[in-house]
Amino acid sequence: MLTDAHIDIIKSTIPLLENAGSALTNHFYKRMFSQNPELQDIFNMSNQHTGRQQVALFEAIAAYAKNIDNLAALTTAVERIAQKHTSFNIQAKHYEIVGMHLIETLRELATEAFTPDVEEAWTQAYLFLAQIFISRESELYKLRSESFGGWAGTRKFIVKEKNVESELVTSFVFAPVDQQPVIDYVPGQYLGVEVMPTGSKYKEIRQYSLSTAANGKTYRISVKREVNGVPGVVSNYLHDGLNVGDEVNLYAPAGDFYFVDRKAPVVLLSAGVGVTPMQSILETLAADKYSEQVHYLHACENSKQHSFAQRVQQLTTENPWQQYTWYRSEESDSEQIGHGVMDFSTRDLPLSNGDFYLCGPIPFMQFAKQQLLTLGVSEDRVHYEVFGPHAAL
Questions:
Q1: Annotated catalytic residue, options 126, 137, 290, 327
Q2: Active site residue 137
Q3: Is this structure's pTM higher than 0.85?
Q4: Which residues belong to any copy of the Globin domain (predicted)?
């Protein structure tokens, strides 16, 4: 049981955590994967190599320590993580393993400071938080398995279609092998995809935004081939090694970023492959004949990398909606395409009462959010999705 004394001790160790920094999480992951290598079937090892996962974990641990006496401040973060965990099929047994390695990491890195009282406090704090996640994730698993078309764990799907959307993005349409209905989702959510890439020692699980409206029969994701920095192990496998007729294992749709109908104007803002959840929202608004204003703003490198261009043009022509695109490295004669970076001051947007949905590279979203706040948009009307480990804007 977590007591006031435990809370006081946890808060007193915050400087210790901050001084340890990423060394703490680097040691933790190295320890865990060496002793429990089977967990490499669950964790995204690409994020381990780039360091993004270590940073995200350290920030999460520090945030928990700082807010342990005000857990309401962590509600949003808990929901986001719980949703992501369900697309990895995280179970209670995994929390036992993680907890053991976390406590042992603290013992090994802070030998003198890690007194019996500190160990007791952190053990109780971890168990308390783990139970919050276990309970919420159990609710999500139950809800999805009992919903019409739902399931638990993985379900086999076949690649029904594979369509090139642009120079770097390809869409995959999955149909269930059992030919039964599939659970609906809220536009903006993602799908967990489990594959075994050629030459890989472990299974790889990735989350990809669903890119069209729910139909109860199939799912569609649209995947960018990652060519810069660390090559995308799974994205390149999907592009080069997954073909029509092949089977994959999918986890039920999840995610805490999704469209909420507030009967208000909607502004969809994306860059690059961040277009995928926005396309799902746009398709859903069109299917529902959404009556409020809709603005669809997108930025990408050039016309060759402009995904869904014709489809967006069709939807915004059929409906009284506005769309505009910026090409960074190409000029266009079209009145709907600008050159350079996205500039909201040139568009007549519903700044006072609109809901703004953002998705794209983190620098783009930081830039876009700051523009919106400067223009007077309330922060609670700015909603965003980060691909991979979460990062604050």
A1: 137
A2: yes
A3: yes
A4: 1-138
